[in-house]
Write a structure and sequence with these properties.
Layout lengths: L4 E5 L4 H17 L2 E8 L2 H9 L5 H25 L6 E8 H4 L1 H9 L4 E6 L10 H10 L4 E5 L10 E6 L3 H9 L1 H6 L2 E8 L6 H14 L5 E7 L3 H14 L4 E5 L13 H9 L4 E4 L1
Parallel strand pairs: 1-2, 1-4, 2-3, 4-5, 6-7, 6-9, 7-8, 9-10
Antiparallel strand pairs: 5-10
Helix pairs in contact: 1-3, 2-3, 5-6, 10-11
Length: 282
């Protein structure tokens, strides 16, 4: 896979500045074009929910104006931060009044090689619908790099850890991450093995390590103890930090089509809590 077109989400917040800068560094590393998008929400629906009843015309007009102002700010920030004009791609305003916010965002993501979004924490969390990134990861068929707010201006991708599980999603993530893996200084494969199980899980770790070697990537295999989903994700994150990793690669697993539960198990924990940039692929 060659990365030529990167799509970054912008929403006008201060956090999105850091996300765009991270996306710009990725685009620079791969000599890729960087495009941006913002979702214009369906304010009539949002107003009805916030008002607890059928919203009046003035409320809808005020919310529409605020949404359009945020979108204009997002575009201005993108154009300012996305790099030189020759490397800037399109700006897309995904209109949720036509197909819904999530469907509009997924439709926009379909035409990118890689999507970059911020994972907002604390006061920034209200700026972005948390289900938006989940939908893009699960439904667009495009790899998603999720940037936590703690990353700031730090570079990443030099020391990558792969969270390996013998599954379609995991191997898809590895293949989508190949451009990053090929450039990395070190690559670690971390696989979780249940002590009561047979040797199949550990053996699959060796096999994926051999597969990576065939691509010129000399990975180191680490076997971690299994637990429930929460402890498994905590083990992966802790091991990544202990090993000095600055990026994680993992499969994105879906459990429910409901927005709140779109990510299942370990994927949701990594999505919610991982302090490192994560490349997720479904």
């Amino acid at each position: 896979m060659t990365i030529r077109n990167i799509l970054v989400h912008a929403d006008g917040s201060e956090q999105s500045v850091q996300t765009i800068r991270s996306a710009r560094r990725i685009a620079g590393a791969f000599e890729a074009n960087l495009s941006g998008f913002c979702v214009l929400p369906d304010v009539a629906v949002a107003a009805a929910v916030s008002d607890g009843a059928m919203a009046n015309a003035q409320l809808i007009a005020d919310m529409q104006k605020a949404a359009e102002d945020r979108a204009a700010t997002a575009k201005e920030i993108f154009r300012r931060e996305a790099g030189t004009p020759d490397r800037q791609g399109d700006w897309t305003l995904a209109d949720a009044t036509i197909s819904g916010a999530h469907d509009a965002a997924v439709a926009t993501a379909l035409y990118a090689d890689l999507v970059v979004m911020g994972r907002y924490d604390g006061d920034n969390s209200a700026r972005q619908d948390p289900g938006l990134a989940a939908d893009i990861a699960i439904e667009s068929g495009r790899p998603l790099v999720l940037i936590p707010s703690a990353v700031g201006e730090s570079a990443f991708g030099r020391k990558i850890m792969i969270g390996w599980k013998e599954s379609r999603e995991s191997v898809r993530a590895i293949h989508d991450a190949m451009p990053f893996l090929a450039r990395a200084e070190t690559v670690t494969v971390a696989t979780v093995v249940d002590e009561s199980a047979d040797d199949a899980s550990a053996e699959s770790g060796e096999r994926i390590k051999d597969m990576l070697a065939g691509h010129g990537i000399d990975a180191v295999l680490h076997v971690l103890p299994a637990g429930d989903d929460e402890s498994t994700s905590a083990n992966l994150i802790a091991h990544a930090q202990r090993s000095g990793a600055d990026m994680l690669v993992a499969g994105a697993y879906s459990r429910s089509r409901l927005r709140e539960g779109l990510f299942g198990g370990v994927s949701k924990s990594l999505f919610d809590a991982c302090p490192l940039p994560v490349l997720l692929s479904h």
